[in-house]
Amino acid sequence: MCSGGRSMNQKISIIRKLLMRCGKEGDEVKFLVRGLQTKLRCRLAEPTVLTALAQSFVESPRE
C-alpha cells in the first residue's frame, strides 16, 4: 500500500476517491467502509477511514 512520512495523507486521498465513486444507495459505501475497517486487514487505522469518509462527503457534488 503506502508507506513513508506522508502515507496517511495518501491513504486518505485513495479512500476519499473510492467513497466519492460509490453509488447513492449506500450499500457500496457500507461494504467499502466495513472492508477498510478490519475485515480485509488493509492496515488502516480508524482515524484514517473516518477522515476520508468526512472529506468525501464534503467534496461530493450536491444534487
TrEMBL record:
Keyword Lyase: no
Superkingdom, taxonomy of origin: Eukaryota
One of the Pfam families matching this protein, by short name: DNA_ligase_A_N
Gene Ontology terms: biological process: DNA recombination; DNA repair
Name recorded for this polypeptide: Dna ligase
InterPro entries found in the cross-reference section: DNA_ligase_ATP-dep_N (IPR012308), DNA_ligase_N_sf (IPR036599)
SUPFAM superfamilies: ATP-dependent DNA ligase DNA-binding domain
Organism: Nannochloropsis gaditana (strain CCMP526) (Green microalga)
Keyword terms of this UniProt record: Ligase
Gene Ontology molecular function: DNA binding; DNA ligase (ATP) activity
Domain DNA ligase ATP-dependent N-terminal: 3-54
